[in-house]
Design brief:
With about 400 residues, this protein is α+β, with helices and mostly antiparallel strands. Helix content is about 45%, strand content about 15%. The chain has 2 domains: about 170 residues, no CATH class; about 220 residues, no CATH class. The chain contains 13 helices and 14 strands. The strands form 3 sheets. A 7-stranded antiparallel beta sheet has the order 2-6-7-1-5-4-3. It has a 5-stranded mixed beta sheet with strand order 10-9-8-11-12. Helix 1 packs across helix 4.
Length: about 400
């Protein structure tokens, strides 16, 4: 599945209010489905579908929403319930019991409830909320995909800077990769975003830290305009809220753009990528480092590594990060060190190397062992025939296909 996004433009205030009503209705159905599951045993997906139909007959505003959108809202509830069951079976400590949503921002349609114009420049929502016709603002690549590919679902998403339409396209994206023969082991960090086994470092721009002063000022302005006993709040309060939301949105987009570009660059220039499988959820419990870890967006970077590795048929491997910084990459002797110690000095073989570079070499060794490629220190990071020899004489394309 491929998701393309376009902004909804040229709508009136009443049209956007209709979209808000559709989003609130989808949230209502989702919360009712969760409550129904809590109150009744043995509830499955089909019973939640029936519930959405019953709600449409009981509530006039629910009947305004398209039937496929009502089913999609029930599916969202079932997904959270199913994930809860899965975590219970896996014995995860935090089960993630389904909760009620208070501020939903999207509504999803299936094959009905919307209509795309022949030139793919306009979309019309045809349910009883009568949101009407909107212009689609997107790039040429998205426009071309809307012409040629089948649209499975349409999702309307509300953000701080407007309303967006996401098209879920029925396609399995595969592209021919450019094989270079390079290998890379990635050690993620805070001083450097990552370092590889060749001591090449990438520094993260720290988007949140740079915007922190502005965010605090906007948050103060919002707090001054909030009146506890007043409902609804004033227009000035909502204007300040939107300004704050826009600033947060900009930071999140900068993080995403950075993660995509770095992951794309790494996968394009290497054939085997090995990274450490960090438990980020536990790492952010350290309140001294939580903000820096969240700002670095390691999770997004890893997601895009795996995505590009899949579509370009590259090998992307995650390994256990335990003792990668402490074990000597030359002799294997374990040297315990604190986080403040940035240089690895081995008392056994007298190797002196950057702590992160040492960890990157260990990460690459573990990844190659998992894939079944022999470690050869003289060929790491080089291309041409030397690397191909380390794959046992087979061509790189054949080896990647086997793994």
């Amino acid at each position: 599945m491929l998701v393309r996004e376009a902004k909804l433009l040229n709508g009136t205030l009443n049209q956007y209010k209709s979209l808000d009503e559709a989003i609130r209705t989808a949230q209502f159905i989702r919360n009712k489905a969760v409550r129904y599951w809590m109150d009744n045993q043995g509830v499955n997906k089909s019973r939640l579908y029936k519930l959405s139909k019953i709600l449409a007959s009981e509530f006039v505003f629910v009947n305004k929403l398209n039937s496929s959108a009502r089913q999609a809202s029930a599916e969202v509830a079932w997904t959270s319930i199913n994930n809860f069951y899965r975590r219970c079976k896996e014995g995860v400590k935090k089960k993630g019991y389904p909760k009620f949503k208070k501020h939903s921002r999207s509504v999803e349609y299936k094959q009905s409830g919307w209509k795309l114009s022949d030139d793919c420049l306009l979309i019309t929502f045809t349910d009883k909320f009568k949101a009407g016709k909107f212009s689609l603002y997107c790039n040429s690549e998205t426009r071309e995909d809307l012409f040629t590919l089948k649209i499975n679902r349409v999702r309307v998403v509300r953000r701080a800077d407007g309303y967006y339409c996401q098209f879920c396209l029925d396609v399995d994206r595969k592209e021919s990769g450019n094989y270079t023969g390079n290998l890379i082991g990635i050690d993620l960090g805070l001083k450097y975003f990552y370092k590889d086994q060749n001591d090449n470092a990438v520094v993260y721009p720290q988007y949140l830290r740079k915007s922190e002063k502005k965010l605090k000022r906007l948050q103060r302005q919002l707090s001054k305009k909030f009146v506890k006993s007043k409902k609804p709040q004033s227009n000035n309060y909502h204007k300040a809220r939107i300004r704050l939301g826009l600033c947060h949105l900009k930071v999140s987009r900068q993080r995403k753009d950075w993660a995509i570009k770095q992951a794309r660059c790494v996968v394009a220039s290497n054939d085997v990528i090995v990274y450490e499988d960090l438990n980020i959820k536990n790492m952010v419990k350290n309140h001294h480092l939580a903000k820096s870890i969240s700002d670095a967006s390691w999770y997004q970077f890893i997601q895009w590594l795996e995505y590009y590795g899949k579509i370009w048929n590259k090998v992307v491997v995650s390994v256990n990060p335990n003792f990668t910084s402490q074990d000597c990459s030359n002799c294997g002797h374990r040297v315990k060190k604190s986080l403040s110690t940035r240089t690895h000095v081995c008392p056994s073989c007298h190797t002196e190397i950057c702590r992160d570079t040492n960890a990157a070499i260990n990460i690459l060794k573990r990844g190659l062992e998992a894939v079944g490629i022999e470690w050869n220190n003289s060929t790491v990071g080089h291309t041409e025939t030397a690397d191909l020899a380390s794959y046992g004489g087979a061509s790189l394309t054949e080896t990647l296909g086997e793994t």
